Amino acid sequence: MQVVDLYQILTTNLGPRHWLEPGVPPAETPWEILWGGVLVQNTNWRNVDYALANLKQATQFRPQAILALSAPELTTLVKPAGFYTRKVPTLQALATWSSQYSFDLAAMRALPAARLRSELLALKGIGNETADYFSMYVFDQPTIIVDTYLRRLFTWLGQPLPAQYGRAQALIEANWTYDFAQAREWHAQIVDFGKQVKTPADFQQSFLGGQHLRLN
Q1: What is the chain's alpha carbon radius of gyration, rounded to the nearest angstrom?
Q2: Which residues make Cβ contacts (< 8 Å) with residue 68, sequence separation at least 6?
Q3: Which of 99, 123, 187, 207 is deepest in the core (most CB within 10 A)?
């Protein structure tokens, strides 16, 4: 089985996921996706929901309003998400970065993919996975997100990925030609499958049990 076959099997068995598409519930704004992507680090979505509700009430997710808050004020709002001493500076850095483009999402989406990713990675608290998540689900740049779910699935399929993020990403990209819609669906499928199938025993009982992946 090759990567394209894996994609087709996931699509057949899981159906389209429609993650974070405009107009599809939950009706998340791009800014909410950005703040949520920071707040979810090292915690669960239930805690993030509380923090996002506070943030929405205080700022309507507007980056200008976030920048107008003091660090203590912002900390109080996002404290339910935990690790606030790290997350508050990241939220502020992300909002400040967006101010360089006049808070214009269209201008940010017009950036070359490599430059956008580089600028995101330069921000405090944003690593490879988060930068790629933002690149695809906010700034419309197709990419492969190498997360725990993807690594675990590839290991179960007999094809463990390299430990280094860039090498793992490049290996998949060398074995699959994908478009923007497929890249979005792929990540959503991998995550949703991983949430349902959590152990090797679960995997053997799943529709992928007994399958083996081949990478060139």
Answers
A1: 18
A2: none
A3: 187
Angle at 129 (CA atoms; ends 124, 132), nearest 5 degrees: 95
Side-chain half-sphere exposure of 111, counting CA atoms within 13 A: 20
**Mean per-residue pLDDT for 50-58?**
93
154: nearest Cα among 116, 186, 117: 186
pLDDT at 95: 97
Which two structure tokens, joined as six digits, stand for 158? 């007999």
DSSP string, the chain: --HHHHHHHHHHHH----TT-TTSSS---HHHHHHHHHHTTTS-HHHHHHHHHHHHHHHTT-HHHHHHS-HHHHHHHHGGGS-HHHHHHHHHHHHHHHHTTTT-HHHHHTS-HHHHHHHHHTSTT--HHHHHHHHHHTT--------HHHHHHHHHTT-PPPSSHHHHHHHHHTT----HHHHHHHHHHHHHHHHH--SHHHHHHSTTTT------
Integer Cα distance of 90 and 38 in angstroms: 7
Dihedral over Cα of 125, 128, 131, 133: its sign? negative
Give the closest residue to 81 by CA, choosing from 59, 56, 61, 53.
Answer: 53
Q: What confidence tens digit (pLDDT) does each residue in 142-157 have?
A: 999 999 999 999 999 9
- Nearest CA to 116 among 89, 143, 88? 143
As a whole number of angstroms, the distance between CA 160 and CA 127 comes to 21
